[in-house]
Design goal:
single chain, mainly alpha, 3 helices, 91% helix, rod-shaped
């Protein structure tokens, strides 16, 4: 196979990589934004509970427990977003790694063909 064919073949395989990477990074950014928004809500609710406790507000124990339960649920949701983000990062890494391994393999085959051609023309 000629060098032009190797290059064309490899570039065909890379055609969708930029779009896939952009999609994954956009999804990670969206997950990060959602997690940050949840963390802001958690901060607000936590401050509310602490202020009520500090000022011995007339807020009932049941109300505090409900707010704490909401905070816990928000933490769980933020953790899910973080876990999804990690999975996307792993998928993105594996996608790029697959292309790198393919390039290494194609280069090795191409170099082997060049050596075969050069050794057959020397004799």
């Amino acid at each position: 196979m000629s060098s032009a064919l190797y290059l064309e073949h490899y570039l065909d395989g890379l055609e969708h990589l930029p779009n896939e990477l952009q999609r994954n990074f956009n999804l990670m950014r969206d997950l990060d934004y959602r997690a940050q928004t949840i963390m802001q809500t958690i901060d607000e609710k936590s401050n509310e509970v602490l202020n009520n406790i500090a000022h011995s507000d007339s807020t009932t124990e049941t109300s505090r427990r409900e707010t704490i339960k909401q905070i816990q649920e928000l933490f769980n949701k933020a953790k899910e977003f973080g876990d999804d983000k990690v999975q996307l990062a792993i998928q993105t890494y594996e996608l790029v790694d697959k292309h790198i391994r393919r390039l290494d393999s194609d280069l090795a085959r191409f170099e082997g063909e060049i050596q075969d051609k050069s050794s057959s023309t020397c004799y």
